[in-house]
């Protein structure tokens, strides 16, 4: 598969200081979406499996998967390569530039499509049977699909919600929201004031300490969606009139007001909620194990506020993809192994995330009826979760939106911040000829 130049987009993004996080770019229609499984594995095949070195429990789970996979069969030997999460985007971008993307690589949801467009990945559409697809959460397949091809599959899906405690709600005399009756944005803002009066010095933990990066896009795009805006038009041709719409401006103005009112802590020690400085933590599934250990049965998981169009949340997490130079059948044999029920249980326990296989998720007491994390599953089942745009433009969308969020946090005019993001995004789409699909 021919490699393509990233020059234009690197030059563009370099002007806003984010070129280091670029994962890939290319020339779109000149990229061949070839590859995939042919039913054959060379004898004694070896593959490199690359995983981001983030949460310790997840790393240990993946290490055990690789070990047990090797012990379970003799067709393929997998070797695990760990890359620190903080360096992951830069490292993978360098591998792509040198045509050395590993055989099996994990990449954050929506980031895979830039690699796919530039020829660094191969589709796995013909590796996955219809029966296997049907066994997965629909969101898993949806988030991995681009240009009518399946490029990536996750072992688990994500959940974004708010954590609080029964005792905090009682102390502040604030009602318990539900998916059927969520807090409105106005009600939630008022509740933050009540929490502050009740003694919570910084009532809202937004994980501001995570800083600019994919979390800002994942964590705060739901405000835009819930307000009635979008990150891009439905055909991914422009952000104008979507990201800077009146609805998006209104929702993010409410967001900005929480900072102006002193409700949001910097959370420099990542301990605002656990220490009791905050009454509410707006974050994903990955904090569940720590929060549950601290608060036990007092812990509650509730939906994000409704900014006018109902609550929304993101979907998609780290996903497996197959490098363009890999033996796809050997790579798929490993990915398929990680989707087996026993492996699904291991990674779900380690991550707190929703197992990719529907039956495994439904059988897990945490995610089943009455479970602490049932909300996460219901949000996917009821269409409340929204995929980040499945387009190679998403890297630029994410970086520009991140900067807009930081500017809004810093007190800059919301409309001006979003207008600047739109200009950056639309220029990138124009410079890359609209990102035509791989052929």
**For the residues shown, what is the average pLDDT?**
90
Give the strand order, joined by hyphens, for the main sheet: 2-1-3-13-6
Using the CA coordinates, give the radius of gyration: 21 Å
Distance between the termini: 12 Å
CATH-defined superfamily of the largest domain = Periplasmic binding protein-like II
CATH topology of the largest domain: D-Maltodextrin-Binding Protein, domain 2
Going by CATH, the architecture of the largest domain would be: 3-Layer(aba) Sandwich
Total domain modules: 2
CATH class placement of the largest domain: Alpha Beta
Strand count: 15
The helix/strand class is alpha/beta
Globular, elongated, flat, extended or rod-shaped: what is the shape?
globular
Largest sheet: 5 strands, mixed
Helix content, binned percent: 40-55%
Strand content: 5-15%
Number of helices: 18
In terms of per-residue confidence, which ranges show pLDDT below 50 for 5 or more consecutive residues?
1-32
Overall description:
The chain is α/β, with parallel strands linked by helices. It is built from 18 helices and 15 strands. The protein has two domains: 31-157 and 318-363, D-Maltodextrin-Binding Protein, domain 2, CATH 3.40.190.10; 160-315 and 395-419, Periplasmic binding protein-like II (D-Maltodextrin-Binding Protein, domain 2), CATH 3.40.190.10. It has a five-stranded mixed sheet with strand order 2-1-3-13-6. A four-stranded mixed sheet has the order 9-10-8-11. Strands 4-5 form a two-stranded antiparallel sheet. Helix 7 crosses helix 8, helix 9 (214-227) packs across helix 10 (246-260) and helix 9 crosses helix 17 (394-409). The longest helix has 18 residues, at 414-431. The chain is globular and about 70 Å long.
